[in-house]
Amino acid sequence: MLYSKIEGEGKPLLILHGFLGMSDNWKTLAGQMASEGFQLHILDLRNHGRSFHSDEFTYEVMVEDVLEYCQTNNLDKVSILGHSMGGKVAMFFATTYPEKVEKLIVADIGPKYYRPHHQDIMAGLNAVDLTQKPDRSQVEEILKGYVSDFGTRQFLMKSLYWIELGQLAFRFNLPVFNEQIDNIGKALPENAVFEKPTLFLRGGNSNYIKDEDFETIKHHFPNSEIKTIPNAGHWLHAENPKDFYSESIQYLLK
């Protein structure tokens, strides 16, 4: 079953991280939300963080993972906050099992198809030969040749851990991502609709959700609002956590 961190008491709220992320990325925001009367379930999706590795990596199987998690933890109805790939999982889950979802918050991803666009990051990760037993600084130096943004490098470095003395590894399943990267961009099926309250948050400096995407969003999520978080790109919850938290918690509480 999926690894999770559970914090707080109250209405269950699931947080689903993005591609190459993990539950640790949401620690601070989850703590704030827990103080507002929610029980936070911060999940590591399959092939990420401390969850299991699998050769299967599609939205369909990730939806079933979340369903199994809810059933095992006796969560009859949940609200879900998902970022990027986690937002897609949340959309697929809500349109597949609408009776399980109360409210949905989708952070900086739309229901449309996205072409593969992680080429530089993937090239950097694949350039790291962990069999040579590099230390953390050497890994970061290799990544720097492919990923110029400091914040993105630090985000990737969070998944690096010591298996044993002198031997680092990535927590995510890089070989499977190399084979199945195209699955990340999959669009929601044309007939997939979720009619309950949904909030889409987009970064003001991000191009993941464009104005011309609003019509498609409304088709799949007719009871949705779309708001822009200023001074933030794709990692809007990290770049402007104050406004991201404010919009999210207001929506969940109303």
Question: Notable features of this structure?
Answer:
about 250 residues; alpha/beta; Rossmann fold; 2 domains; 7-stranded mixed sheet; 10 helices; about 35% helix
Report what the structure shows.
This protein has 254 residues and is α/β, with parallel strands linked by helices. The chain has two domains: 4-113 and 186-253, Alpha/Beta hydrolase fold, catalytic domain (Rossmann fold), CATH 3.40.50.1820; 119-180, no CATH class. Helices cover 36% and strands 20% of the residues. It has ten helices and nine strands. The protein has helices at residues 27-34, 59-72, 85-96, 119-127, 136-144, 150-157, 174-180, 214-220, 236-239, 241-253, and strands at residues 4-7, 11-16, 38-43, 78-83, 101-107, 160-164, 167-170, 198-203, 224-229. Strands 1-3-2-4-5-8-9 form a seven-stranded mixed beta sheet, with helices on both faces. It has a two-stranded antiparallel sheet with strand order 6-7. α2 crosses α3 and α5 packs across α6 (150-157). The radius of gyration is 18 Å and the shape is globular. The model has no long low-confidence stretch (mean pLDDT 96).
Low-confidence stretches: none
Shape: globular
Number of DSSP E strands: 9
Number of domains: 2
User: How big a fraction of the residues is strand?
Assistant: 15-25%
Which strand order spans the largest sheet, edge to edge or round the barrel? Answer: 1-3-2-4-5-8-9
The chain-level structural class is: alpha/beta
Instruction: Give helix % range.
Output: 25-40%
CATH architecture of the largest domain, by name, is: 3-Layer(aba) Sandwich
Give the integer mean of the pLDDT values: 96
Number of helices: 10
CATH superfamily of the largest domain: Alpha/Beta hydrolase fold, catalytic domain
The end-to-end distance, rounded to whole angstroms, is: 32 Å
